[in-house]
Design brief:
The structure is a single chain. This protein has helices spanning 14-20, 30-42, 68-73, 77-88, 121-133, 178-186, 198-216, 242-247, 268-275, 283-306; strands at 22-26, 46-50, 93-97, 113-116, 138-147, 154-163, 227-232, 237-240. By secondary structure, the chain is an alpha/beta fold. The chain folds into two domains: 5-262, Rossmann fold; 265-307. The protein has an eight-stranded mixed β-sheet, sandwiched between helices. Strand 4, helix 5 (121-133) and strand 5 (138-147) form a beta-alpha-beta unit. The longest helix is centred in the last third of the chain and has 24 residues, at 283-306. The protein is globular and about 60 Å long. The structure holds zinc ion.
Length: 307
């Protein structure tokens, strides 16, 4: 018996797949603090944790795993997340940096999935572009509180999007727009003290973790390559958005196929993975490996024909 026995329905060797997988968490605020905790319970083995911030008193209303002592100590958010993960799974492989992800982007290149908990539209746009280039599935979470005019009530909403190469991107889905980028630039990228609260973050994070499980385990026979779940906290619903349905079958004009891939790709990085008995790596990683094998074999065939 293992600590993951109750989730064996996720499929054959799902424990090994989850343990072999590495998930990058960019931004360890409210949303990704839930994601880190849940992925630890799921048995994810590898983590890359990136956030340049420390915890402050106003984070304590939503940062899962944080304590008042952490606030007094001014502890980095990545350290709090790492502590939560290690308390569940002491053998987890954790790489963490208190830094902006753009400064340490190389650490993310080996991830099988990346989950973004970023406030700024510009940062989401940059992280998605990075993920597209390195063919890594990207899951984006976002939450908004909108005061209703002439009312004391506020609308609490959010969305979780799975973005993979060839599928609709955040620009296709109108989550990144030039207007939003411009408005943010005029505020010098400062999001300000936006309203944030714990339970919508929990709903969005759980939805994101479900997508991670779909990507890594054989739980679903044919999981969708893209997803857009819209959350309405006032109605209490999470539902697929028709924004994605409207984009089905249409090419993403923002990330053409020729811009995908790493121009300094080194096949030796993947040889170790290929030697491992299948299926021990995450689905995302193996699909990347397959894509590159096709490219390498095609080049070799062309060279052979020239001889
Ligand atoms: Zn697009």
């Amino acid at each position: 018996m293992t600590w993951l026995d109750r989730q064996s329905f996720l499929g054959a060797k799902s424990d090994e797949r989850l343990d072999a997988a590495t998930v990058g968490l960019v931004g360890l605020g409210g949303g990704n603090s839930h994601v880190a905790q849940q992925l630890a319970h799921l048995g994810i083995g590898g983590f890359v944790l990136l956030d340049d911030d420390i915890i402050t008193l106003t984070n304590l209303n939503r940062l899962v795993g944080a304590t008042l002592e952490d606030v007094k100590a001014g502890r980095p958010k990545v350290e709090i997340a790492a502590r939560v993960i290690r308390a569940v799974n002491p053998t987890a492989r954790i790489v963490m940096r208190r830094a902006k992800w753009q400064e340490v982007g190389d650490l993310l290149k080996g991830c099988d999935v990346i989950v973004g908990g970023l406030d700024h539209v510009g940062s989401k746009d940059e992280l998605e572009a990075f993920c597209r280039r390195f063919m890594i599935p990207y899951i984006d979470m976002g939450m908004d509180v909108t005061p209703l005019p002439d009312s004391w009530e506020s609308l609490v909403s959010g969305q979780v999007v799975l973005s993979t190469p060839g599928e609709p991107c955040l620009r296709c889905l109108q989550l990144v727009t030039e207007e939003r980028l411009k408005a943010e630039a005029q505020r010098y990228g400062v999001a300000g003290s936006r309203p944030q609260v714990v339970w919508p973050n929990g709903v969005l994070a759980s939805t994101a973790v479900g997508l991670v499980v779909q990507l890594i385990t054989p739980w679903m026979r044919d999981p969708p390559r893209s997803a857009y779940f819209a959350y309405d906290a006032n109605l209490g619903t999470v539902a697929p958005s028709d924004r994605l349905a409207r984009r089905r079958g249409k090419m993403c004009p923002h990330y053409p196929a020729k811009t995908v891939g790493d121009p300094i790709f080194d096949v030796r990085r993947y040889i170790g993975r290929l030697d491992q008995p299948a299926p021990t790596r995450a689905l995302a990683a193996s699909s990347r490996v397959r894509a590159w094998i096709v490219v390498v074999l095609t080049c070799l065939r062309k060279l052979a024909r020239r001889d």
